[in-house]
Specification:
The structure holds two protein chains of two kinds. By secondary structure, chain A is an alpha/beta fold. Chain A has helices at residues 20-33, 50-60, 77-90, 104-115, 223-230, 242-246, 277-280, 312-322; strands at 7-10, 13-14, 17-18, 40-46, 63-69, 95-99, 118-123, 125-129, 132-139, 144-150, 155-159, 176-182, 189-196, 209-213, 236-240, 267-271, 288-292, 306-308. Chain B has a single domain (2-212), classed as 3-Layer(aba) Sandwich (Rossmann fold). Chain B is globular. The chains are: A alpha/beta, B alpha/beta.
């Protein structure tokens, strides 16, 4: 392995601000450095990136390349791929790190192909063995973790947001900002604008208790069990995983997860939720997590404080019956 | 409009999956339950909706996999697709996204399509790479996580909305031909119809042995599998359902989460 090839962290920004996933990327880079003592460099791409670049230099003490592209007012996959390919061909990189976000998963495979590097997506962990770096990523909705070693000298790696915690403190140092101007590359994709996806939150942010349903509830009728369970708690709300919203059983405003709401209530009751990482991303910081699922292997159990392996149709009615405080 | 949909057969993630003692192989128990990838159902449905709306359209479906994967191709014919293709790979071989995408692209070069649709990811590997890589191999425009789609009146472009973080959608216009990865929820996938299923039974699939195609050198190696580590105590309640319910209520009251 060529130790000199820098580790690249690709910053993510929107609406004029750096996104938290950028700092998580730096955390991944520091873990990669345990094996590979190469320097870490940040790349920032956009129309107005000088100020963001300065902010990154100040907070990280690293070398930051701010690539200014006139006309690139928003993320564009083709432009990002072309620019990163150009920049990283002239200054070859080892590991290239980005968040597994709507940006990262969009350009990472294409960039990897162009650079002839392995592409590992949605990585949740890494370790070092005597031969080098081993990356961990979930399969089957998080039931299984696979360990993968790239065979190329470096790789394009997207990591799952929320897993690699942002470092608490800024790390000032001998950082330097390099401003690079590039023309907007040819693209067959035209960016037209942004719009809100759906009605924003169904009282989820304010709820102290969230009772969430997943595909495991089986049929739409069972939603009334979920509602009755939620009614045991004051300041509660009913939510669900994406598949239930896809079915139209719940509104998308009630969706928890990567493409829905992120919540951290005092109590999260996951009913029939398998626990795919897309869902976990939206609720893993909840105070106390209870999971009810008849599949003993459901990934949600690994992220729960209390696990109940039962059929919902049997179990929830018992909770509803026994739940109300006994009159003493 | 010529549309190609890429579909994958996956081991049902709802089933039980064990790891063999060497840690190198996944073993479904008690018996493997294979099904069509959840996200691909939305891609097939979207193609069929377009076909119904645009005159002289056709929907082909392609899958890369071992012999048994033929069933998912036939299921798509049962939903209403016109033509089924199966790139037949060896049993029990793990194929990289690069490899799968290169084979689909090989077919796409010989039979140009206006639109290639894929599911946003596969439920088994959850990599989400094949769609972007097909676009890369064929030098086509790409949009991932597409949640809304409309073809322009002259049929030269497609307007899409892609789902991004923060409850927002990005609106894009792509010049055709293009590759779109379809997010779940964009439509309600239909079930195969009896008449189509009967038609599909008699229909010949186009079978292409993967061995006759170019092999991509593997860029990564899977060292093994494990079960995830717990990030929380994961206290498993035992006893009868009633005992478990009582135990849970006690825990919640002790933690002042319930009155």
């Amino acid at each position: 392995m060529d130790m000199d090839k820098p580790i690249i962290v690709i910053a993510e920004h929107g609406q004029g601000r750096l996104r938290p996933v950028t700092w998580e990327g730096l955390q991944v880079a520091r873990q990669v450095q345990q094996f590979n003592r190469a320097p870490v460099r940040c790349i920032l791409i956009g129309e107005e990136v000088e100020d963001l670049g300065k902010e990154m230099v100040q907070r990280t003490g690293l070398e930051v390349w701010a690539i200014q592209v006139s006309g690139l007012t928003s993320y564009q996959g083709e432009a990002y791929t072309a620019i990163l390919h150009e920049v990283l061909s002239s200054q070859p990189a080892g590991f290239i790190i980005a968040g597994h976000t709507s940006q990262g998963w969009d350009y990472a495979p294409r960039l990897a192909r162009r650079l002839a590097l392995a592409c590992l997506t949605a990585v949740t962990g890494l370790r070092v063995d005597k031969e080098g770096l081993v990356f961990q990523r979930p399969l089957y909705g998080g039931k299984i973790i696979a360990e993968i070693r790239p065979r190329t000298e470096g790789a394009v790696v997207t990591f799952q947001p929320g897993v690699f915690k942002e470092p608490e403190t800024d790390r000032p140092g001998q950082g330097v900002l390099r401003l690079i101007k590039k023309d907007l590359p040819f693209s067959r994709t035209e960016w037209l604008g942004l719009k809100p996806s759906r009605d924003q939150n169904a009282g989820l942010a304010e709820a102290e208790v969230i009772v969430a349903a997943g595909r495991g509830i089986g049929k739409a009728d069972n939603l009334q069990l979920i509602q009755r369970l939620a009614a045991l708690f004051p300041r509660s709300a009913v939510a669900g995983s994406r598949p239930l919203c896809d079915l139209g059983w719940l509104g998308y405003s009630q969706q928890i997860g990567l493409t829905g709401a992120t919540v951290s209530p005092k109590l999260y009751l996951a009913c029939g939720i398998s626990g795919a990482y897309q869902h976990l991303a939206g609720m893993r910081d909840s105070g106390f997590i209870v999971a009810i699922n008849k599949d003993p292997q459901a990934a949600i159990f690994d992220f729960s404080d209390v696990c109940i392996i039962e059929d919902l149709e049997t179990f929830i009615p018992l909770l509803i019956e026994k739940g109300p405080a006994e009159k003493r | 409009m010529k549309i190609l949909v890429c579909v994958k057969e996956v081991l049902d993630p709802e089933g039980t999956i064990q790891i063999d003692p060497s840690g190198s192989k996944l073993v479904p128990v008690p018996s493997p339950l294979f099904k069509m990838n959840y996200f691909d159902e939305f891609a097939v449905e979207e193609a069929l909706v377009l076909k119904a709306a645009i005159p002289q359209s056709s929907v082909d479906v392609i899958s890369v996999g071992p012999r048994r994967s033929e069933r998912v191709v036939r299921r798509c014919l049962g939903m209403g697709a016109d033509h089924g293709l199966h790139i037949l790979s060896a049993e029990e071989t793990v194929l990289s996204p690069f490899q799968i995408a290169s084979w689909i692209a090989w077919y796409g070069r010989r039979h140009p399509y206006d639109l290639i649709l894929v599911g946003v990811m596969a439920e088994d590997d959850m990599e989400g790479q094949v769609g972007p890589l097909v676009a890369e191999f064929l030098s086509l425009a790409l949009a991932t996580s597409v949640i809304s789609l409309a073809v322009s009146t002259e049929g030269k472009a497609v307007y899409v909305e892609r789902e991004i973080e923060g409850g927002l959608r990005e609106q894009l216009k792509l010049v055709l031909p293009a590759v779109l990865s379809i997010q779940s929820g964009i439509n309600r996938p239909r079930y195969p119809s009896l008449s189509n299923v009967l038609r599909a039974k008699k229909q010949e699939l186009e079978i292409i042995p993967a061995g006759s195609l170019e092999q991509e050198p593997p860029l990564q190696e899977t060292l093994g599998f494990s079960f995830p580590q717990r990030s929380r105590p994961g206290l498993v309640l035992s006893g009868s359902p009633l005992e478990k319910a009582a135990a849970l209520l006690t825990i919640l009251r002790d933690k002042a989460l319930l009155n």
